[in-house]
């Protein structure tokens, strides 16, 4: 049995008293329905993941990358899951659980909008009213996802405090929950927050590694030397790692956003990155003890990444623990390298990845020798939502890999 | 039930405690000193002094904004301790903050160094909204060592085993959260208050009710319902915010805070009097 409350020194339940009874109720529901499959909950969850979500997702051999890096590269195609990212695994699980618990309303936070869209889809699918909290900055940089949430019937509530990104959206969703806790379930979007969320979200996401472990044996006839996944809060990361944790010979590589720099500006309270596992230290945020980007007083820093989904000052407590144990190796890739990797994967494999996902491929490009002879890389999501950002950010840079957009100018001139 | 007799002693049956909250350093260090002292002049019996944290998940917009103003003006834990040492008030001071600041102050040593320093500058107790009884042992132990009180919040959702656990841990007073949600001034008094007070009727620590109290009549109503004290934050922070936005002189804002404090304290006293008049002794 995996741990469910504390992961070494990390985890726990640091939330206002008003939420504790709901946390206890959720813990009870998690144990009964998820861990013990009461009333066939897990069977229904798996069936809906198949029929509505399109699971299992393929494990694909990447011809060009394998040749370029002289290693067998397999892609776990979570971008092909309904909605275009791994997020549905968790959202569908939690909305279904809320239904089993008799809750009447769903709330969720979102950063890049992927969790918000997945929750909105799952809520529409299961006929539950849904409200999404999203930072104002993120609303502006992820417009297509906002529109998708609205199309699925979800309310989108802009959060204007602070810098208006994921951190503020989580705080605001917790405040809503403190007011509506008796009728509402909070579908947290990553392996963060108070117990049982980190363990429960991991369990819903671990379908990724459960499938990948079987598939790589079919394809390669053995386990991989490494599994590589990007890491923000860490749900696709733990989902990709969970079933491999006990396979001591499989290296687990968590690639964080190096942003524009790993140097922290303590005066301004800004960490121009989201490399929490690599550079953060222990503290308490959003219900859990974990690694954080914080100043020496303990005030939480404003993080940064070109990818909204990795832009968070905390990380899942289980990942923090596995890094301390030496089981997971943290790495980071900066904005430039992630953008180059975005273009490279689009051009060479015909897959336009999410900017979050691109970090994992940036790592492969920079460290082809670190992944062994056979590697599995999680393609956590597709990049349609990022196209505006990518065009803008690419124009500002002189990248090794680039796209010539002069066709637009030519067309305008006609 | 009390590590420090000053705190529980501030609550009396016929003289219910008025417990105001302000964020230290809002909108700046000097003005904030004046404001806190004005509350004491207005009749505060205990003052909850907020140490601003960047992610205040239990606060509504009014106090979130106060925290942003205080942080922008340079408030830090060390400045906070200077602030407390410099304050010229003779009522018990309770530090209200979030656990990460308490925890980070001591680095590897946990909450003890923060508590030691707080005791040193004259803090009497703590309220930590993101620290439920489950996670409170290290702070509880440090408070016991330095004779400080640890106040817990009882929410409208708190029942059964949870009440028992908090009853064992709480000292000084118990903070009764009047309604679901976050802090913020409201125009009504919640029925949840009566129910919450009834659930802890036989506890022997004083019961202070907070969340949503805005004026003297609310205070009277809540004391009549059985509270030993009232906690008021957002309605006072509103005055600070208004003064800041309109660029008013510090003394004018301080005067209004003092007047508001007096109104709230008088309301509490009125409630106690009404309660005394309406009580028929049970054995008659």
From TrEMBL, chain A:
Cofactor: pyridoxal 5'-phosphate
Keywords: Amino-acid biosynthesis, Aromatic amino acid biosynthesis, Lyase, Pyridoxal phosphate, Tryptophan biosynthesis
Gene3D superfamilies linked: 3.40.50.1100
One cellular-component annotation, GO: cytoplasm
Enzyme Commission numbers on file: 4.2.1.20
Summary of the function given for this chain in its UniProt record: The beta subunit is responsible for the synthesis of L-tryptophan from indole and L-serine.
PANTHER family: TRYPTOPHAN SYNTHASE, TRYPTOPHAN SYNTHASE-RELATED
Subunit description: Tetramer of two alpha and two beta chains.
Protein name per Swiss-Prot or TrEMBL: Tryptophan synthase beta chain
Native organism: Halorientalis persicus
Phylogenetic classification of the source organism: Archaea, Methanobacteriati, Methanobacteriota, Stenosarchaea group, Halobacteria
Gene: trpB
TrEMBL record, chain B:
tRNA-binding listed as a keyword: no
Keyword field contains Lyase: yes
Gene Ontology molecular-function annotations: tryptophan synthase activity
Spans through the membrane: none
This enzyme's EC code(s): 4.2.1.20
Keywords annotated in UniProt: Amino-acid biosynthesis, Aromatic amino acid biosynthesis, Lyase, Tryptophan biosynthesis
CDD domains, per database record: Tryptophan_synthase_alpha
Any Pfam family: Trp_syntA
This protein's pathway: Amino-acid biosynthesis; L-tryptophan biosynthesis; L-tryptophan from chorismate: step 5/5
Reaction catalyzed: (1S,2R)-1-C-(indol-3-yl)glycerol 3-phosphate + L-serine = D-glyceraldehyde 3-phosphate + L-tryptophan + H2O
Cellular component GO terms, alphabetical: cytosol
Active-site annotation: 48 (proton acceptor), 59 (proton acceptor)
Annotated function: The alpha subunit is responsible for the aldol cleavage of indoleglycerol phosphate to indole and glyceraldehyde 3-phosphate.
NCBIfam families (alphabetical): trpA (TIGR00262)
The protein's assembly and partners: Tetramer of two alpha and two beta chains.
Record-stated family: Belongs to the TrpA family.
Protein's name according to its UniProt entry: Tryptophan synthase alpha chain
Organism: Halorientalis persicus
Lineage: Archaea, Methanobacteriati, Methanobacteriota, Stenosarchaea group, Halobacteria
